[in-house]
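Usage

Read records sequentially. Each one opens with the input sequence:
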Amino acid sequence: MNSTNNWPDLLIVKQFFEPHVCAEILAELKAAPSNTSTVSGRGPSRTVDEGVRKSLRILPSDETIELVTRSLLECRGEVEEHFGIKIDECEDPQFLHYRVGDFFVAHQ
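and closes with the structure output:
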């Protein structure tokens, strides 16, 4: 790898949430139900494929999903500028728990 290459190109948004909001979200996630993570296939359905991803998907409240989505959208301009792209929408965030031995293969 070229030493001048900045890959991966990351955007870090400092203080995305106030510390007390982070603590509230983490407490909720620790207590929330979960199920096996799914992956997108070639069709419209999502399936469990532990050859591609092995992890748990945590299921927080609708309010937490809306809070995170709203916060992501508030950063849209900063993300667009940093990556030089236009963002029209934001898919729902996923809250995943990777235990020892869990994985997700490299994205294509």
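Summary fields computed downstream for this record:
- The longest helix spans residues 19-31.
- The CA atoms of residues 17 and 78 lie 16 Å apart.
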